[in-house]
Amino acid sequence: MRDHVVAVDVGTGSARAGLFDSRGRLLGKGEHPILMNRPRENHAEHNSENIWAAVCAAVRNARSVAGVDASAVGAIGFDATCSLVVRDTQGQPISVSSEGGTHFDTIVWLDHRALREADFCTTTEHGVLEYSGHFMSPEMEMPKLMWLKKNLPHTWEKSGYFFDLADFMTWKSTGSLARSRCTLTAKWNYLAHRKPGWQADFLELIGLPDLKVRGNLPEETAPVGSSVGTLTAEAAEALGLDQSCHVSAGMIDAYAGALGALGGYAGDAAGLERQLALIAGTSSCIVAFSKERKRSTGMWGPYYEAVFPDTWLVEAGQSATGALLDHIVRMHAAGGEPNAALHERIVARIAELRAAEGDGFAARIHVLPDFHGNRSPLADPHGVGVISGMTLDTSFDGLCRLYWRTSVGIALGIRHILEKMHEYGYRPDTLHVAGGHVKNAVLMELYSDVTGCKVIVPAMNEAVLLGTAIAASVSCGLHADIAAAGAAMYPGGHERLPDESKKAIYDRDYRRFLAMYRHRAELEKMD
After folding, report:
1. Which of 113, 170, 348, 394 shows its CA 20 to 30 Å from the CA of 265?
2. Residue 485 lies in a domain
């Protein structure tokens, strides 16, 4: 009986796979690193064949650990970062690198080479921007495609396929050119609530009138939970599965995480609107849902049916959070390579210092966390970070003070986003946190105390894989729909309520946080 599914999460630095049963229990997990090329500032590239090989290794390992036969796997699902894969007319890799060579055919999501193109899209004020927060981010696919056409014309002329990374994975698995409604709506300015979904006048305006033909992009999209086909013989062999295994429509990784974190509310529209998913790792994404379209200036969306049917999704986020803490550790004289052990040592020492010094610990240090721009709510990819209150202290305790206050800055950034969401009519009161930050006691405390929200920590901290598994379970008929799958597979979680005694402290920090934004703007406007 095919009562198991495989979920694959293609992240920034690795591919992870999990094998789940019909109740959402994770029976086996595998992980394999992927390569990234950083040839110059703001440029980041993957090799899609390297990613595929990593995925295959991770899937084989997960099934081996689980001890489940291939004949018991009904479907495999993929989620991935919003990276852009480019193939030629024969489906072979073609270079997206200004350094040449054919190995790197994928522009990574965090690549900011297309800042100028993103700014141009924003200045058009075209109607499609109403569904991306009235601005264009260089992390979206259109600016990257514009950059490609302008700067690598030979690659553009030879191109035959453009894929969001999750859609590349489903194509590689099935040969199907179907594209996910999740990926195209969220990252390609496709309007799922309109027919046609592609807005030809916008493509003409930004110099991409030939995009659909050049990239083999379809007019219709595949909703989350649908099957785009079954595995080819070659893919089945590589993955260690069989050709009867369905492949579900791909998902953006953060949205898979939102489904995994909030799946238990899929059948409760009113309850769902009071929940937020915070998928927090290298960067952080906040995802909220509503039955009605709401304004979302400075955030991504609203996107129609990017996850749940007949539901709008809005995404806000921070481009560097875990990456920012790594940077702080790496740059400080008392830091070093920011591995898990060093982070744990810093967190433990912070607890000791706070116990000794009380609420005044490092209180004069203030951090604006925009070291890789401000994704939300300012929608400023050119934004920079600010640190105030530094001394000549190069000790380990000095690092701990800066780390603590950087963490406070990250949490204040989340509060800033929530305040703006409230202005637009969103009324969430519960924050479901998933991802690597769950392991960081400092951040988990701050997410609750700084925002004033109840925080839910999932019983199983694999929300991204779980969300992908939920969708896969529907694609093969294991569950009737997303609501049924969510109810069956959602693991529940543990609550943390905010410490009301800290409210005045963080209210003051938040006022200073907003003041720093004003002061940064004043400095940048000076002649």
Report:
1. 170
2. no
